[in-house]
């Protein structure tokens, strides 16, 4: 199915308007994080390493809606933490839908079976369910056994009720192309609208630092995944532009445009994106856009960005490239990403004789992610609270 026409039309019209007006930097998706508390403690997460007093905090309904109005984006992604823990989440979602904005509620789905009645199907509303692979992979990623078996029936139930549902997948070390392709097949057979996929970003505050992919390894892994898809003749549906997928496969030399996905959380407007947690905050969206030194971030500019290929920074770049080169984007959409030949040179390597294609390391690099208990907070177990 992929992204519905209504959403493509509304987002495309918004982008075209910005370009006609000559706006240099404009947001596409608001990353709204109204809480950091979660009922899981995933090895690759950098959002849960806060003291209990912070984990107990919440943005109010009004604060969330003010953020949506302030930045004027067509799409809002609600993350966290686990959004379904927030008692006022149904009101937040309803308020955003009332504004005719497209809402993606990112959830691990452990609470969704109990909370589904709080929401109504809408063309403006999607459950984006965290699923990092098939059973063994996902349970290892979230550091808890049995999660996968709880999530799959909930996905089916949400689809049966008429909700838009996508899966949100992050790839880490020790993945193989065949394993990921098997998972994409599973997601497709479930009937979800699309798959969001991205290499894991190396959060400085993540419990494990050895689970993240190097940039060159990510590109070769994605090439192998897309090769496997062509071999299987499977038409996987992604919630991405064709050129972002082509970028993941090493065929586009893109620089990050973090301003395309601004973040509003408990501390304010986060600089420069939701992935870098120690770069400071702005008190308003306008201050974020006008006073942030965007040129200091990106591949080859900031060591924290060295291995990043995340959609929050590079999807806006790919979308801008789509508008600039529609024929190229259409060709990739029809034929899929190129899976052989030289790779595009990274921005950090441009001007040198070294290209990203020259680093021929084998993948995957074996890493064992050991299960980790969920960090208990003074607020107690949130898994069954509303």
Describe this structure in words.
With 386 residues, the protein is of the alpha/beta class. It contains 13 helices and nine strands. It has a single domain, classed as TIM Barrel (Alpha-Beta Barrel), CATH 3.20.20.70. Helix 5 links the parallel strand 3 and strand 4. The two termini are 33 Å apart.
Annotation keywords:
single chain; 386 residues; alpha/beta; TIM Barrel; nine-stranded mixed β-sheet; 13 helices; 9 strands; globular; disordered C terminus
Write the layout of secondary structure elements.
Layout: H1 5-21, E1 29-32, H2 52-55, H3 61-71, E2 75-78, H4 89-98, E3 102-107, H5 112-115, E4 125-130, H6 135-141, H7 147-160, E5 164-171, H8 177-190, E6 194-199, H9 215-232, H10 242-248, E7 263-265, E8 268-270, E9 281-282, H11 285-291, H12 311-324, H13 326-335
Parallel strand pairs: 1-2, 1-7, 2-3, 3-4, 4-5, 5-6
Antiparallel strand pairs: 7-8, 8-9
């Amino acid at each position: 199915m992929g992204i519905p026409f209504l959403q493509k039309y509304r987002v495309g019209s918004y982008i075209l308007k910005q370009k006609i007006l000559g706006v240099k930097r404009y947001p596409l998706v608001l990353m709204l994080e109204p809480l950091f508390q979660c009922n899981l403690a995933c090895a690759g997460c950098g959002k849960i390493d806060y003291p209990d007093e912070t984990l107990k905090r919440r943005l109010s309904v009004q604060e969330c809606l003010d953020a949506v109005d302030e930045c004027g984006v067509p799409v809002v992604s609600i993350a966290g933490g686990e959004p379904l823990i927030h008692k006022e989440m149904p009101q937040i979602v309803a308020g955003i839908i009332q504004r005719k904005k497209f809402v993606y509620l990112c959830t691990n789905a452990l609470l969704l079976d109990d909370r589904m009645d709080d929401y109504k199907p809408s063309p403006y509303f999607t459950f984006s369910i965290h699923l990092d692979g098939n059973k063994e992979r996902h349970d290892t990623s979230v550091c808890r056994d049995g999660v996968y078996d709880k999530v799959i029936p909930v996905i089916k139930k949400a689809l049966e009720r008429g909700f838009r549902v996508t899966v949100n997948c992050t790839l880490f070390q020790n993945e193989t192309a065949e394993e990921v392709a098997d998972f994409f097949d599973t997601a497709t057979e479930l009937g979800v609208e699309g798959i969001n996929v991205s290499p894991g970003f190396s959060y400085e505050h993540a419990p494990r630092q050895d689970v993240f992919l190097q940039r060159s390894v990510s590109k070769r892994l994605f090439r192998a995944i897309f090769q496997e898809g062509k071999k299987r003749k499977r038409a996987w549906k992604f919630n991405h532009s064709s050129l972002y997928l082509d970028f993941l496969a090493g065929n586009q030399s893109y620089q990050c445009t973090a301003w395309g996905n601004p973040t509003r959380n408990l501390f304010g407007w986060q600089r420069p994106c939701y992935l870098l947690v120690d770069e400071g905050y702005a008190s308003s969206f306008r201050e974020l856009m006008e006073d942030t030194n965007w040129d200091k971030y990106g591949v080859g500019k900031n060591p924290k960005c060295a291995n990043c290929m995340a959609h929050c920074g590079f999807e806006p770049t790919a979308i801008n490239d789509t508008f600039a080169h529609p024929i190229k984007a259409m060709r990739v959409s029809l034929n899929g990403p190129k899976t052989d030949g030289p790779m595009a040179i990274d921005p950090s390597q441009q001007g040198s004789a070294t290209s990203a294609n020259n680093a021929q390391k084998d993948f995957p690099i074996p890493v064992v992610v050991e299960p980790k208990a969920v960090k208990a907070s003074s607020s107690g177990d949130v898994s069954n609270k509303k």
